[in-house]
Each structure stands twice: as C-alpha cells, then as structure tokens.
Amino acid sequence: MHGVARRPFKRVLKFAQRNDSATMASNVRSSLLYQLLIHAHRIYSVIFFFALIFLYFYKGSILPYQYHVRVLELLIILAFAPIEAIRLSWGTRGNLTETPGFLAFSLLLSFPVMLIHVYLAIFQNYVLLIEAILVGISGVLVIVETVVGLAVCATLSKGIS
Fold first, then answer.
1. Residue whose C-alpha is closest to residue 81's, from 49, 37, 105
2. CB 31 within 8 A of CB 148
3. Would you say residue 80 lies in a domain?
4. What's the CA gap between 78 and 49, in Å, rounded?
5. Reported pTM
6. Which string of DSSP letters, residue by residue, matches 4-28?
7. What is the pLDDT of residues 93-146, one digit of tens each?
8. Does residue 109 fall inside a structural domain?
9. What is the tens place of the pLDDT at every residue in 41-99?
10. Is 89 among the domain residues?
11. Which domain holds residue 150?
12. Is residue 77 part of a domain?
C-alpha cells in the first residue's frame, strides 16, 4: 500500500520537471532594466515638470524678465511635458510589446528632450542652482535611457534564433 501512494507523486514530480524546463527557455526579449528606468523617469518627470512650473513663477516674481523671454520660457516648459510623456509612453509600449518601431520613435524623441534640457540648463535667462541640479538629473536619466534603449532596439530588431 505504501508503494501505491508513491507512484502518483513521482508522476507529478516528473510533470513539474518537464514544465519547469519548458518555461526556462522563453523568448522574452524586452528589457527589465529599460522598463525600470522608464518607470522611474516617468515619476521623476512629473515632479520635474511641476518644479519647473513653480520655479518659472518664482523667477518671474523675483527677477526682472522681459515679457517675450518669459513667454518663450513658458512655452518651452509646456512643450516639454507632452514630448516627454509621448517618449516615455512609446518606450514602454515598444519594450513591452517588443516592437522596435515604437522604441525607435521613443529614441528619436530623446533628442528634442535633450535639447530642451540643454536650453533649461544653459541658455535660460536665469538658471537657479536647484534648477540646474534637477535638469542635470533628468538629463542623465535621458542619456542612460537612450543608451539602454539603443541596445534594446538592436536586440528587438534581430530575428529570433
């Protein structure tokens, strides 16, 4: 009787071993590192955008600005938000669906985002220290995401071997 009870357990164990080996050889090519970077940057971008808006109004009330310069800086800050949101959304979609097209468009949008960062860090009328730090952190995140995104795009563009 004791030997009869062991046989079903051995069958279950063999079945579990076969399923474990089948799941080990998956063809998932999306990048966890890239997804974590995008997720962290999405949270940081929201904080960054509201900090830029707050600093814009702070500088406008304290520092002497010409009207056209102030309007231009507001337009640049407002243009940053949708470009960054689309870039992060397409990067997420391209990574999770393993579609190199969305990932490539996300990488293309990294260049206007970097240009906006360069403007905010260097070419603004007045740059506060906290603003330079915030822009520097965001710029480093964009550069790292772009480098990792290029590697992921190259991986996704290859055929499945």
1. 49
2. yes
3. yes
4. 9
5. 0.80
6. HHHHHHHHHHHHHHHHHHHHHS---
7. 999 999 999 999 999 999 999 999 999 999 999 999 999 999 999 999 999 999
8. yes
9. 999 999 999 999 999 999 999 999 899 999 999 999 999 999 999 999 999 999 999 99
10. yes
11. 31-157
12. yes
